Amino acid sequence: MTTTQNPPRTHAKDTSKTAVLVATIRAVHLRWHNPPHVFEDTYALQMLTPFWHGVAKYRVLKWLVGDVILGVYRPVYPAVVLRSRYTEDQLEEAIESGTAQYVILGAGHDTFALRRKDLADKVRVFEVDHPATQEVKRQRVMKANGSIPSNLTFVPVDFEHDKMDEELVKAGFDSQAPAFYSWLGVTYYLTQDAIRETLDRVAELSASGSRIVFDFKIAKHMMSPEWATLAEKMEGFVARRGEPMLTDFTPQSLSDLMARHGYTEVEMMPPDEQGRRYLGDRTDIVPTEFFYFAQFAVKQPSEENSA
What are the pLDDT digits (tens) for 265-300? Predict the structure, then answer.
């Protein structure tokens, strides 16, 4: 397997900034959007620093920071709650079918293990992230819950030195049993080499029946002119802050890439389908045109030979 340099996004300070921003968006959705909520993250506020807690909680701060200072990010907000809803819908189906391992790659301040205590005896949760980010997360979970949920395992991985698959196995992951992986808000910040390496590690680690859900940024020529302009502004904004968006796909190019790495397509969800499935006729949330969601199954060598 080719070893690739880790992209800037994996540094602790960057992952922490990204994690808190995503948690803030989920908290803002629950507090300020009208019900029914697309995604109800009832612990998101408790994952935030005092500053971001204030942004999520107080209307004036939300407007000043979220709408004015970070206004270029606004098109991304719907994608955060929609991708979370989609992922956990697919996860629940997998659990009902017998999958008992959930691996969150780049977990940040995800709160699934806190929110879904009803599933604690059905699924073990492995959160993979940078050690510094996880130490902050551990402290906030303890403060919010009083203890670490019994089914939650933190898997600290310094991607510059550690191998994700090896660290997962050390943490108790069973490579002989199927798993469900989520990989949200990451692919567009990685090089194609880094994406391919992660896909290889997941495929080599995973038993038949395993699946992975992630979001990806589509190529600009597939966007309307209005959305392409918004995407360019956002890309410039994040690049100036040290988090350039490096990779996009067309649905076909992604399917081709995944097939080469041993995956079969289960579903690919464009923005219009996101809207139909989760938004109905509401107009206060508009799907982000430049993000698609995808679900793929790991194809084992024996399956490839019989295909």
Answer: 999 999 999 999 999 999 999 999 999 999 999 976
Number of Cβ within a 10 Å radius of residue 42: 12
pLDDT single digits (tens) 26-59? 999 999 999 999 999 999 999 999 999 999 999 9
DSSP letter for each residue of 27-46: HHHHHHSPSSPS---TTGGG
Peptide bond preceding 225: is omega within 30 degrees of 0, i.e. cis?
no
Give CA angle at 20 (16, 4), nearest 5°: 35
Find out whether 56 and 48 touch, Cβ atoms under 8 Å.
yes
pLDDT at 16: 54
- 54: helix, coil or strand? helix
As a whole-number percent, the residues of the chain with pLDDT over 70 amount to 92
- CA nearest neighbour of 184 among 280, 285, 112, 284: 112
Q: How far apart are CA 301 and CA 307, in angstroms?
A: 10
> Among 306, 212, 193, 194, which residue's Cα sits nearest to residue 263?
212
Which residues contact residue 182 at a Cβ distance below 8 angstroms, ignoring those fewer than 6 apart? 87, 91, 102, 103, 104, 105, 212, 213, 214
pTM, to two decimals: 0.91
Backbone region of residue 146 per phi and psi (left: phi > 0; alpha: psi in -120 to 50; beta: other values): left
CB atoms within 10 A of CB 3: 8
Contact at 8 Å (CB) between 104 and 110? yes
